[in-house]
Amino acid sequence: MYTDSMRRAFRSLNAPKNFSLQIVDNDNFLTVKASEKDFMSLETVEMKREAIEYMIRVKKALEDNGAIVLLVREGGKEL
User: What secondary structure, in 3-state letters, does 6-63 show?
Assistant: First the structure.
């Protein structure tokens, strides 16, 4: 499901410094994983806002190329 056009769209977006996403191909949909540890280590609210905006841009770019996208975080404590 993760096509070359999706890969190009994802790589065309610049990630904020010290923040990255992982793309997981689940055949019928893609999972975009963000590490909670990486997110929480961002120093300012503005840096965190940029990371969230980046995640939204990645989701939209993949959807514009035909993917069904699930955004998830990895790590952290569950209540």
Answer: HHHHHHCCCCCCCCCEEEEECCCCEEEEEEHHHHHCCCCHHHHHHHHHHHHHHHHHHH
Query: CA-to-CA distance for 43 and 61, rounded, in angstroms?
Result: 27
What's the pTM? 0.88
Cβ-defined contacts of 42-51 (< 8 Å, 24+) = 42/16, 42/18, 47/16, 47/17, 47/19, 50/16, 50/19, 51/16, 51/19
Summarised one tens digit per residue, pLDDT across range 24-65 is: 999 999 999 999 999 999 999 999 999 999 999 999 999 999
